[in-house]
Amino acid sequence: GKYIVAGSSNNKLYLFSDDGTLLWDFIGTADGSTEYGTAFVSVSISSNGDYIAASDKEYLYLFHKDNNTPIWSWVAPGYPNWAWDWPSYVTQVDISADGERIIAGVRSYAEDRDSDDKGYVFMFGNEDNTSIWSYEKESLNDVLAVAISADGEYSVAWHVDGEKRMYVFDNSDGTPLWDFGPLSASRFSLTVFSMSDDGKYIL
Description:
Layout: E1 3-7, E2 12-17, E3 22-27, E4 42-45, E5 51-55, E6 59-64, E7 72-75, E8 89-95, E9 101-108, E10 118-125, E11 131-136, E12 142-148, E13 154-160, E14 165-170, E15 175-180
Antiparallel strand pairs: 1-2, 2-3, 4-5, 5-6, 6-7, 8-9, 9-10, 10-11, 12-13, 13-14, 14-15
């Protein structure tokens, strides 16, 4: 609880100490050419307070608490939305307790109206922006939520497609261990979940 990270709708990221002192801030890379691309939408800080993962929709960043210069950044793959020119974007991020594993959900827009949007799950280490593994499923068009166990061994992702399904992954190679669904009712969806430190239980 020594550090608090906050993202804002004016595309700024803030790191505070536990007494409310602003330690640093950062302005996101999204250029603001569309209203949809100018806000930090997801942030996560490691339990030891050393590492911060954050997304301003288009970009994923990893920081160390001592510096507002990103260790690395990564842009979500895909095209701008063909109808509204919204960029493909990172929907949610989470980070392990030691900051060595970062999971990101992505919505990737298709090039044109005749192609299908895609949803991805990406796993990263804290050394660079090369993904350790990624997961894509046919007709997976939106990954709405992700979480990672504190020990970094397991992760969970919730996606929306025709089936609405939750997947649990082995983080060593991205293998889906099991899934929950389909939840086909149009008004029924998982909205939030949490994972135990060892990844054995999911609420």
